[in-house]
Amino acid sequence: MNKEKISELITVANNLVDSQTGKSLTDVQKRILQQVMEGKKLKDIQVTGYSDSTVQRVFCPKLWELLSEATKQKVRINTIILVLDKILKQKSGSNNESEIAIPIEAVSVPPPVIPKRLRHNLPAPSCTTFIGREEEIARLLELLSPRHSAHLVSVDGIGGVGKTTLVVEAAYRCLNASDNNEAFLGVPTFDTIIFTSAKQYYLTSFGLLPSLAPRRTLRDIFRQIARMLDQLDITGASFEEQLDLIKDALSYQRTLLIVDNLETVENQQDVLAFLYELPPTVKAVITTREQIVFVPVRLTSMPEKDGVCLIQHEAQSKGVSLRHQDQMALYHVTGGIPVAISYAIGQLANGYPIQEVLERVSHSKGDVARFCFENSVKPLSEQSAHQLLMALALFPMPALQDALVQVAVPDADSTINNDLARLRGLSLVRQENHRYSMLPLTREYALAELKAHPNFEREARERWIGWYLSFSQKYFGQDAKEWQQFDGLDLEWQNLQAVIEWCMVEGRYAEMLKFWQNIEAYTHIMGRRESRLRYWDDRLTWTAWLIQAAEQRGDWLAAAKVIVDRAWTLTSMGKQKHLLEADSLFAQAWELRHHQEPLFRLSLARNIAVLRIQQQRFDEAQQELTQAIELLEQTQLEEQQRLEQLVQIRYYQGEIFFKKQEYSDAKILFQEALELAQSMDWRRAIFCTQNWLADIAIKQGRLDEADRLLKQGLRVAEANGDKCRSAFCQRSLSSLAKAQGNLVSARSWAYAAVENFEKLGMLPEVEETQILLQTL
Q1: Which of 521, 635, 670, 709 has its CB 3.0 to 4.6 Å from that of 694, i.e. a possible disulfide?
Q2: Do the Cβ atoms of 188 and 144 come closer than 8 Å?
Q3: Beta strand 399-400 with 435-437: parallel, antiparallel or unpaired?
Q4: Does pLDDT of 99 surpass 50?
């Protein structure tokens, strides 16, 4: 189809759309129509400045829909020409008839021009397909537009994050738009594109390669500009004359000037002054690892979706097959840094196994670490900023500023904020809500730096332990049997874990025991709120270490307490193997009871009774509780302590009678436990007991009473974030709904209970509830 006919058909389409919507076709839509009429298939349609997928999956379908509405006919890529040509012929043959009244106006499709080739010295793109960074590339192209007032733009981020790749991609889009005279599509156009780089090394799949001719001085930049403008005689003039001649030459043409790797340029302030004074015809872009106060485009690590997409693309292009778990491992080790991803895939393509590649990437003295961090960290040596960087590596999760400063530079003065700002400016650390963090690769490098400074590491670790001992002290003595608030501890939990585990490895018994005493209640309660697998696995690991360490030191007082705590945890977990170990531990604790106060022996007897209930050995459980009553009568306790012990004894006696299906006796005991708990306002005990009373009410046919107790209990449990209590209420509500004959509701409550039990890792309770589901 000739250009005249294409122009006529696009005019028809434009006028139809205008008559229906009051708006003309956009330049992008006209460009798409033009390519369709030139015979291109959907997969070949492109618009400069937009990704192919956006054009083909978003713009084209919307255009077909718009034309369908305007023509009152179904329009698709293979019917556009037929539909528009038919309308054009009807218009031509209608003479004075008013079937279709579409005024023919001059089409705004750009007239054919002979493409001009602008001068440029851009390096070849480092990737065959540009992946991710859609917001950043759009932002950069917007800043390069003549409509935007910014004439000096910085693209900053840590080494290897893709600064040069982003700028070169944007430059090539501008180049294509300029060559094809496509300024009407919204992509900036230039007469000349000049690229100059001070990069000293390139990271490739076979290691670091030196740059053969880095442009590291302002005179180097002048020579590059003069060469691209074909005015080499400029370089023979004095510096001042060169400056004036270059500014004058650039003022006559729209120029994109790229200065790559500013941080390795000599006399950076002179270079920035030159860029700042350039005429308005020039858009200057600098890439740098340091955050500079110009109009910025800031790059961080790629999000997981884009990072995995890049891994898949690199693997496919290099013929590497990767399992999903290997892709995820690679993403997490690289932290989403593109250069590290490309290097790793290249190593795999060279035949190295995945595990070795992962180790190479994270190695603190390897090519990736040298490329990304060496030039940024070396100038910090022996300074507070370096100590802050090394200390931050001790924190696996974002660190509070107070904690970081106290660990790194305890005698810090007011300049510490400048040091932190410097680390942020170098993109070595990130700040959010008064917390500081670093990427995984940065952390590995910083840990190596820490190891290389043993005196500082020893002192920093002592301060690290001291800070967290002081921090956790405020949670000492909390009652795990009541609802508690642990404001702030959840945010510090993983950092606290790191300190505790280091104390274990280093054999720091005194500190480890103190940590345990401070957070014992927290780990128990979080097992009810969040996950027994997450928090109670740690309890088991730590108590195993503490028991052995206490026994080795003959600290029988501490050993007995930790043994009982471990046994109680295993009893609560409920699996047969757990109950067997708990039985052995309680026997061991009983042998150590003489090292403890009477209250310990009373609690031990009660805890053994709970184990016997779990083992379905009800008579033995009753004997233990009877012994507990005797010990309670013999022991001098404060009234609050006495009531607390009595509530628990009556509670477990009631559970024994319930499980023996002696519901009337169970109700009496639970009622007594409830009244005692209410007298001391022990809220969690109140609602646990009411749950049992509701279960008894269901068995005895008092369904309204059960409904009231359970719904009240569920509301309170959810308000306190107690998933464990919520799950038990939901399971009882399922039994209630079954008794009411409402099987749909019964199944719904049972599924909700199973979901909560599964989240908590309460596997025996999951199995029991699934048995209930089978009866519904």
Answers
A1: 709
A2: yes
A3: antiparallel
A4: no
Of 116-125, 494-503, 578-587, the range with the lowest mean pLDDT is 116-125
- pLDDT classification of 185: cutoffs 50, 70, 90: low
Q: Measured between alpha carbons, how far is 16 from 87 in angstroms, rounded to an integer?
A: 10
Alpha-carbon gap, residue 483 to 479, rounded angstroms: 8
CA 80 to chain centre: 46
CB 662 within 8 A of CB 696: no
One DSSP character per residue, 377-399 reads: HGGGTTSHHHHHHHHHTT-SSPE
> In the chain, how long is the greatest CA-to-CA distance?
116
Q: How confident is the model at residue 110 (pLDDT cuts 50, 70, 90)?
A: very low
Q: What is the DSSP string of 728-740?
A: HHHHHHHHHHHHT
- pTM to 2 decimals? 0.71
Token pair, residue 216, equals 């590291």
CB 566 within 8 A of CB 543: yes
Q: Report the pLDDT averaged over residues 754-760.
A: 91
C-beta separation of 307 from 278 below 8 A: no
Nearest to 373 by CA among 384, 364, 383, 385: 364
pLDDT of amino acid 106 = 41
Contacts 24+ apart (CB under 8 A), 604-613: 604/564, 605/631, 606/645, 606/648, 606/649, 606/652, 607/564, 607/567, 607/568, 607/571, 609/652, 610/568, 610/571, 610/652, 611/567, 611/571, 611/579, 611/582, 611/583, 611/586, 613/652, 613/655, 613/656, 613/659
